[in-house]
Design goal:
By secondary structure, the chain is of the alpha/beta class. It has helices at about 45-50, 75-80, 100-110, 115-125, 140-155, 170-190, 200-205, 225-230, 230-235, 245-255, 265-280, and strands at about 5-10, 20-30, 35-40, 60-65, 70, 80-85, 160-165, 195-200, 210-215, 220-225. It has a single domain, classed as 3-Layer(aba) Sandwich (Rossmann fold). The protein has eleven helices and ten strands. A six-stranded mixed β-sheet has the order 6-7-8-3-9-10, with helices on both faces. Strand 9 and strand 10 form a beta hairpin. It starts with a strand and ends with a helix.
Length: about 280
């Protein structure tokens, strides 16, 4: 595996803060991975995202993106490599139409019009919003707005897509659709796209290849979703939600039902329950 994001002993402190938002944080993300970063409010997740795009500069330590140091001298190179989608897509809209909005970043980069038009069309196609190209962004649903925000990033062809709480303002259906979209993009683009999900949504985190748990600015645990989510008590200690399937297993265990020890997704839990009932 080839590292694409490397943090070495990174600390960041906000002015007048009593403790650092991130404290001596070291981690690596490999090219083509989908990594979810979870932690309670104020744990440092969004601070980490902003450091990766040089919206903030570390107080100490080093960050490297695709072998490029994240420094003021390299800021525009870094922002070509890293695209971000934030919690509220309305804050990212600047165009009168969906197509105008997707084209905005390309115009700022001086991309020729003959190249810009097909890139905008391709990006909208990738997020299933091609038929909305001439719509006003304000008239879209929350989920559609986030799709356009992702298209705006994809049009610039970044190597890394950061979703900073991008599903938190969506309803359950919108969150499921957003997770399915990211899964589809990863399948299509493979190692050409690395995804970081900064999230509270356990279902979103469970879809990732790997989960990183941050608590009070420090790395607590990293591993595959199954390794992280089977320890419900530890997650609760850190102020985090527990996957529904694990909650259900706990309730069944309390009632004397022998349940699988290994982590199961909601779909796998439904299948296990169905098989258990069918045997009776």
């Amino acid at each position: 595996m080839t590292p694409i994001i490397e943090l070495s002993h990174v600390t960041y402190s906000y002015p007048n803060s009593e403790r650092p938002a991130l404290n001596d944080l070291s981690l690596t993300v490999n090219r083509g991975e989908w990594v979810a970063i979870i932690g309670h409010n104020g744990s440092g997740k969004s601070t980490l995202a902003k450091l990766l795009n040089y919206l903030l500069a570390p107080t100490s330590g080093d960050i490297t993106i695709a072998d490029t140091p994240v420094t003021e001298a390299n800021v525009w190179t870094i922002r070509d490599l890293v695209g971000m989608v934030f919690q509220n897509p309305d804050n990212q809209f600047v165009g009168a139409t969906v197509a105008d909005d997707v084209a905005f970043g390309l115009e700022n980069r001086g991309v020729p019009r003959e190249e810009m038009i097909p890139r905008v069309a391709q990006a909208l196609e990738q997020v299933q919003m091609a038929s909305f190209a001439e719509r006003e962004p304000a008239r879209l649903s929350g989920g559609q707005k986030q799709r356009v925000a992702i298209a705006s990033v994809l049009a610039s062809q970044p190597q890394i897509l950061i979703l900073d709480e991008a599903t938190s303002m969506l309803d359950p259906k919108g969150r499921r659709e957003m997770i399915a979209l990211v899964r589809q993009l990863k399948a299509e683009l493979g190692d050409d796209l690395t995804v970081l999900s900064i999230t509270h949504d356990i279902d979103e985190a469970a879809s990732a290849d790997r989960v990183i748990v941050i608590n009070d600015g420090e790395l607590v645990q990293t591993g595959q979703p199954a390794d992280i989510f089977q320890h419900a008590a530890k997650l609760r200690e850190l102020g985090l939600a527990v996957p529904f399937a694990e909650e259900l297993k706990e309730k069944l265990r309390e009632r004397g039902v022998a349940v699988p020890e290994a982590y199961l997704t909601t779909e796998e839990m439904v299948e296990w329950i169905w098989q258990s009932i069918s045997k009776k």
